[in-house]
Design goal:
The complex is a heterodimer of chains A (520) and B (364). Chain A has 2 domains: 229 residues, P-loop containing nucleotide triphosphate hydrolases (Rossmann fold), CATH 3.40.50; 235 residues, Rossmann fold. The C terminus of chain A is likely disordered. Chain A is globular and about 70 Å long. Chain A is built from 17 helices and 23 strands. In chain A, strands 13, 16, 19, 20, 21, 22 and 23 form a 7-stranded mixed beta sheet that branches. A 6-stranded mixed beta sheet of chain A has the order 6-7-8-3-9-10, with helices on both faces. Chain A is an alpha/beta fold. In chain A, α11 crosses α12 and α13 runs parallel beside α14. Chain B is mainly alpha-helical and 364 residues long. Chain B has one domain: ABC transporter involved in vitamin B12 uptake, BtuC (Orthogonal Bundle). Helices cover 69% and strands 3% of the residues of chain B. A two-stranded antiparallel sheet of chain B has the order 1-2. In chain B, α3 crosses α12 and α4 packs parallel to α6. Chain B starts with a strand and ends in a 13-residue tail after the last strand. The C terminus of chain B is likely disordered. Classes of the chains: A alpha/beta (520), B mainly alpha (364). The interface between A and B is large, with 46 and 29 residues. Chain B: It is a multi-pass membrane protein. Chain B: One of its GO terms (cellular component) is plasma membrane. Chain B: InterPro entries: ABC_transp_permease. Chain B: It is found in: Cell membrane. Chain B: This is Sugar ABC transporter permease.
């Protein structure tokens, strides 16, 4: 079959060079009609660059792309869409204040009357069992529903190849299942799918073939159903994976962080309010907060770090001292460190050197200031310590934060907080967009900090991460926190339902979701 | 062939120096062309405006005296601009500063000496800060845009000035002209070089940039201003209060403008009349940006802008163009410096045009 029909997409010797980086180095693989083909690799492995060239956003420096056997040069995404190449990006391009229909109409290359367009949208949705009201305003939709808009948008063009960039990073387990049903149906109808992900069990469950990239080079094209997750991960990283080692027989210490009836009104029209949040974290405990993006995680981090103050001093206590009305600076002196999810511009200043970035959060705890003047030497020394202790790849303390890769900057930021030996550490998305090697190092550092007696709160969308890291877990949904549960013996289905919000999920889908839940 | 802007990994240090120089050169080139097209000797006009004040040594003292207030005001404005606090009302703060100094002079009567002079200078700074505290309070309390409120207060300051010099503070021996009485000789700033007009204010304008440089690069305050300006969320994360930064930036900006007003009054003009507001407060905005918000940059840019002021007067007599021409050149410089700012963060790349789509898919 493979020899008789020309591949839908064939890449031969694709090379793309950026200043100082070889993003793709002689990459060749092909995708058959109806095949679900995984593109697997760490961050910075060159996956995005590769699909951008297929979708016409960039041009290769060398190599050939063949489409149904014909040589092809796609000059822009519009030309790609015309050929039948669709793409669903990781970050959606949607206008929050407009309806689903208006958003889709805006993205269409051809002008279609709104009524005809709506009819076609309904047709496509029915065909693939996608549930979505075209007249809903986007701001009222969950992330999973927003992704459906992007999928519908791509499907309206009758694609022959659909590129999905990290589609499940923001979905609940149930939404992932629904997405896979759609993708399998598409593939059965002959549409090829190029599926970019780093979640190995998903690739095993969904894909027919996996192409693994490392450092811009193709490492292997394999059958994920035959490989194990571990073997694929090792190909992806190029070295044996380090297991997280948790010291055995830990006993939890005293209550370090107590959050008691914390409520904060939402900021702005689309902000999420925190409603009556209660939890306690003891010394040595790692407390996980799961949830789908946009359910109040950010507001919770800001409330804990002191960037947004609570009306009630007793709402947050560190080591028994109420800090609800203390500013971030004062909370830090009481031993609370935090790492927000956004590295550039929130946790660090991209234009500043690594040394200058230590002053941001470590100046008072580590005595980097005297008489209003900064001790540049102390900042530089500490930056050097962090770089060494956390194996940060950087030119030195003088390198700007913005020049570091995402994983290295995250290691640096985590190191900057952890080496201050905080009593309480609150981290949001510690390994988001971080390669597996750096993620393992960060996880180990969190475990070690807890083992040394600190209380750690990890807010993450990555359920696997929380399950492997945490002792206790709670789910945040629409600004409310579920009751904490022990990770040992936690019920994945229950967590999934809590993440989807068993009470308030979109009115169009609850039956489908419950059926799915019962089916397991 | 396509031209593409590519984001640099880090802002180019070279471009930060090159763009202000290129902006001045471009202004000169465009000036020559435009004036030639208007039938005026453009080359001569540009030479007189930009070069004569530097080449003719007898013009140097004029340049120094005009540069001093520009530099001092621009230093203060640069602090605000770095923190994204946009004080456009330095002209008003400059006027109020001069009026406060004048008030001290009037109250002192015939008394003089260093104590009176220092009091005048301090009163000028306090007056400028007080005037700038209004937009600061409006911004931090009610979220009022400081660009509008600080600008509008300039016009209020003008009214205060014309009321005072035309009413309560009018010189009784001044033949009814709207102007204050001239300062006593021992109430004016000392002259640095006898036989010139170069007063103590010029020395202050030379020293202050280095003080500000130290402040911005080494102090926690400077760090706070820089963080708030380049990453406000990181500043909040680091525990720097946004409102406090607005207050500090406005008070320093107003204080420096007030200082410049007091020095100009006590050093050069010695009396305040309706012609006192000369637009230094607005021109200093150009100085601040041409100097790339760096204290030493402000020192150099202040001299460049002062040259155009002096040169504008030269060109008035040599090629008979109105004095307002200098303003046109100053505005052009601001235009070019703001436009060329993009090259600091982006680089230009020329890309050979891509081949057209060879083969559309069959059945499309």
């Amino acid at each position: 079959m493979e020899s008789s029909i020309a591949p839908r997409l064939q890449l031969t010797g694709i090379t793309k060079r950026f200043p100082g980086v070889l993003a793709n180095d002689n990459v060749s693989f092909s995708v058959r009609p109806g095949e679900i083909h995984a593109l697997l690799g760490e961050n910075g492995a060159g996956k995005s660059t590769l699909v951008k060239m297929i979708y016409g956003i960039m041009q290769p420096d060398a190599g050939e792309i063949r489409w149904n056997g014909q040589p092809l040069s796609v000059s822009n995404p519009k030309a790609a869409r015309k050929l039948g190449i669709g793409m669903v990006f990781q970050h959606f391009s949607l206008f929050e204040a407009m309806t689903v229909l208006e958003n889709i109409a805006l993205g269409m290359d051809a002008k279609i009357h709104a009524r005809d367009l709506e009819a076609r949208i309904r047709e496509v949705m029915e065909q693939y069992g996608l549930k979505l009201d075209p007249h809903r305003t986007v701001s009222t939709l969950s992330v999973g529903e927003r992704q459906r808009i992007e999928i519908v948008r791509a499907l309206l063009l009758n694609p022959k190849l659909l590129i999905m960039d990290e589609p499940t990073s923001v979905l609940t387990p149930q939404e992932v299942e629904q997405l896979f049903v759609v993708l399998r149906q598409l593939a059965a109808e002959g549409c090829s799918i190029l599926y970019i992900s780093h979640k190995l069990h998903e690739i095993k469950a969904l894909c027919d073939t996996a192409t693994i990239l490392r450092g811009g080079k193709l490492v292997d094209t394999c059958d994920p159903k035959v490989e194990t997750s571990r073997s694929m991960a090792e190909k992806m990283i190029g070295a044996g994976l380090k297991e997280i080692t948790k010291p055995a027989g830990r006993s939890l210490g005293q209550e370090k962080l107590v959050v008691n009836r914390l409520s904060i009104p939402g900021a702005g029209p689309f902000g999420i309010a925190l409603k009556d949040i209660n939890f306690t974290v003891r010394g040595g405990e790692i407390f996980g907060i799961a949830g789908v993006a946009g359910n109040g995680q950010n507001a919770l981090l800001l409330a804990l770090s002191g960037e947004v103050l609570s009306g009630d001093a007793e709402a947050i206590s560190i080591d028994g001292a109420p800090v609800g009305q203390l500013q971030a600076k004062s909370r830090r002196l009481k031993g609370l460190a935090s790492v927000p999810e956004e590295r550039n511009g929130h946790a660090a200043v991209p234009e500043f050197s690594l040394a200058d970035n230590t002053i941001l959060t470590a100046r008072d705890r580590l005595g980097m200031v005297s008489a209003g003047l900064i001790k540049a030497g102390a900042a530089k020394t500490y930056a050097g310590e962090v770089i060494t202790a956390f194996a940060v790849k950087a030119l030195g303390p003088g390198a700007t934060a913005g020049s570091l890769s995402g994983g290295n900057l995250q290691k640096y930021i985590m190191g900057r907080e952890i080496l201050q030996k905080p009593a309480v550490l609150v981290v949001s998305q510690p390994t988001w967009g971080v390669d597996a090697g750096a993620a393992a190092a960060i996880h180990q550092a969190i475990v070690d900090l807890a083992a040394a007696g600190s209380a750690v709160v990890v807010i993450s969308q990555d359920l696997d991460e929380l399950l492997s890291l945490c002792d206790t877990l709670a789910v945040i949904n629409e600004g409310r926190l579920s009751r904490p549960m022990q990770v040992a013996g936690a019920d994945i289905e229950e967590i999934g339902l809590l993440m989807g919000g068993i009470h308030g999920e979109a009115p169009t889908t609850p039956t489908a979701e419950l059926e799915l839940a019962h089916a397991h | 062939m396509r031209i593409k802007l590519e984001k640099r990994q880090e802002p180019s240090k070279l471009m930060q120096v090159v763009t202000p120089i290129a902006s001045v050169l471009l202004t000169m080139v465009v000036g020559v062309v435009v004036f030639d097209l208007l039938g005026i000797d453009g080359q001569r006009a540009v030479i007189d405006i930009f070069l004569t004040p530097l080449l003719a040594s007898y013009k140097w003292q004029d340049v120094a005296v005009k540069a001093a207030p520009l530099i001092i005001i621009a230093l203060g404005l640069s602090i605000g601009n770095r923190a994204n606090v946009w004080n456009i009302g330095a002209e008003g703060q400059y006027i109020i500063g001069a009026l406060c100094a004048s008030g001290v002079g009037i109250a002192a009567g015939t008394a003089g000496g260093p104590i009176i002079i220092i009091t005048m200078i301090l009163a000028g700074m306090l007056g400028g800060s007080a005037w700038a505290s209004v937009p600061a309070a409006l911004r931090t309390r009610f979220g009022v845009n400081e660009i509008l409120s600080s600008l509008m207060l300039t016009y209020v300051a003008l009214q205060v000035l014309s009321y005072l010099v035309g009413g309560p503070w009018k010189d009784p021996n001044g033949r009814n002209f709207p102007a204050t009485a001239p300062l006593q000789p021992d109430q004016t700033l000392p002259i640095l070089f006898s036989g010139t007009t170069v007063h103590l204010g010029v020395a202050i304008a030379v020293v202050l940039p280095f003080v500000f440089w130290l402040l911005m690069s080494r102090s926690v305050f400077g760090y706070q201003i820089r963080v708030v300006g380049s990453a406000p969320n990181a500043a909040r994360h680091g525990g720097f209060d946004g409102n406090q930064t607005v207050w500090l930036a406005m008070l320093i900006g107003g204080g420096m403008a007030g200082l410049a007003g007091a020095l100009e009054f006590a050093g050069s003009l010695k009396a305040i009349n309706l012609g006192f507001p000369s637009g230094y407060g607005f021109t200093a905005i150009i100085v601040s940006f041409l100097g790339r918000l760096h204290p030493i940059g402000c020192l150099i840019a202040g001299i460049v802008l002062a040259v155009t002021y002096v040169g504008g007067q030269v060109a008035q007599t040599t090629v008979h163009i109105p004095n307002a021409t200098a303003g046109i050149f100053q505005a052009m410089m601001l235009f070019f410096i703001l436009a060329s700012d993009i090259f600091v963060r982006y680089r230009v790349r020329f890309i050979p045009s891509a081949k057209a789509v060879v083969q559309p898919a069959p059945g499309e």
